[in-house]
Design a protein that fits this description.
Rossmann fold; binds S-adenosylmethionine; single chain; alpha/beta; two-stranded antiparallel ribbon
């Protein structure tokens, strides 16, 4: 198949990266070693895959669109496995178990229509990822790294920041893709968070966060009516906060402390 004849499917988020410098900068942003295992989601025509192969890492690529086979089959080798499947349906644990590796990374120029489901799948599969480098829509990148008191700070921010330290590395203009998407993009780095603030009961922690953000305009007192408000108030006071504050003003560490004290 000729590269130029490929009909990009908008419904699959097929905006292929054509800017060589950006591709180089993605691969440079992480210190890959030969004995690492990298999962790439959506290799497309293999632009990023080829760059990853220069690091001689073990690579598993998940691509839903079999029309990319003529491009990807050329890249398949002893260290590169291509799996044609919907990433949201695969059993990642099973796929990686035959590999022996040092660090596990996910590196991808994501299909934007399923950014959050992909990240949630990775976290929920408990595969112990050391880091991720993800190209996402710029606005989404801002939400991932949002700080308390900003409009983008929400329960998703807390969920992701609980597992990872998140840094936006650089913006990528729409013109770097073929075809150019309607939105600008950004590359975001996720680094596994060390257990600085261990949560005693994760289920309880996530429920508390979700309840606190239940009605964004309401304060904690009104969103957390089913909780021991006296206990909550006494923890909040230690941080110069109170039940009058809204969830968007509460840093993740305070939520962790609250959940642990309520447990
Ligand atoms: N990595 C290539 C690049 O940088 O040029 C392509 C990136 S493109 C933004 C997203 C890719 O994800 C497309 O190749 C698309 O077919 C693939 N894709 C879309 N949905 C997918 C899914 N559910 N599972 C696996 N791949 C998917």
């Amino acid at each position: 198949m000729d590269v130029d004849n490929f009909k990009h499917k908008k419904s699959l988020g097929q905006n292929f990266l054509k800017d060589n410098t950006i591709l180089d900068n993605i691969v440079k942003a992480i210190d890959l070693k030969e004995n690492d295992l990298v999962l790439e989601i959506g290799p497309g025509q293999g632009a990023l895959t080829k760059k990853l192969q220069t690091k001689n890492v073990n690579l598993i690529c998940y691509e839903i669109d079999e029309r990319t086979k003529p491009y990807l089959e050329k890249l398949s080798n002893a260290k590169t496995e291509i799996i044609y499947a919907d990433f949201l349906k695969v059993d990642i644990k099973k796929d990686i178990e035959k590999y022996q590796y040092h660090n596990l990374y996910v590196i991808a120029n994501l299909p934007y229509y399923i950014t959050t489901p992909i990240i949630k799948k990775i976290i929920d599969s408990k595969i112990d990822v050391d880091g991720m480098l993800l190209m996402v829509q710029k606005e989404v990148a801002d939400r991932f790294g949002a700080k308390p008191k900003s409009k983008d700070y929400g329960s998703l921010t807390i969920y992701l920041n609980y597992y990872f330290n998140i840094t936006k590395l650089f913006n990528v203009p729409a013109s770097c893709f073929d075809p150019a998407p309607k939105v600008d993009s950004a590359v975001v780095k996720f680094q596994k968070r060390k257990e600085e603030f261990p949560v005693i009961n994760e289920e309880m922690f996530f429920k508390l966060v979700q309840d606190a953000f239940k009605q964004k305009r309401k304060n904690l007192k009104n969103n957390l009516t089913n909780y021991d408000l006296k206990k909550i108030e006494s923890v909040l006071t230690n941080y110069n906060l109170s039940l009058q504050n809204r969830a968007e003003e509460i840093p993740i560490e305070v939520f962790i402390d609250l959940a642990n004290k309520l447990n």
